[in-house]
Write a structure and sequence with these properties.
Largest sheet: none
Order of helices and strands: HHHHHH
Strand content: under 5%
CATH architecture: Up-down Bundle
Number of domains: 1
Distance between the termini: 47 Å
Number of helices: 6
Radius of gyration: 19 Å
Structural class: mainly alpha
Amino acid sequence: MKIMKYLQKASSMNDSTKEKQSYITISEVSSLWLQLSGRYDAIESTRILRNFVRDEDLKKMLDDGLEVLNAQVKELESTSRDYGIPMPCKPPEFSNIALDVNAITDKYVFKRIYRGIQNFLSLHMTCFIHTKSSFLREKFRKFLNEETDLFDAMIEYGKLKGWLEEEPTFRP
């Protein structure tokens, strides 16, 4: 698959945007747009929620997640520009919120981020499944792998803090 990705990328390097558009399907365009739009939303939510976090380890995890999201955004924006795909609106750089900061706990922030990562895992897999382009499929595979690493770290952190909800056990 990696060979096809490089061949595909090399063969289209000198093509115009219009010519490149003939190499991808509307489903792949939609996947790119959804991936980028979702990351913009995740970045904005993470930035807002990070303002309320007291736990230094959770702050570090959120910062690491933002680093991954920002790197992926650059990659997706570049690919979208290459294919002439209109981009969603970017999130604001800073978000000022006036509310009772005691209402938002570290556990609440953890749960919002944890659920967000779960949702992204489904999106990554769906985009991967519906993409025929080797180049784009490889990109979505990379995002899926990065997301599973973040999710695994969140699970371990959640277990350590006791923030994961106890699932019912089956004991006949």
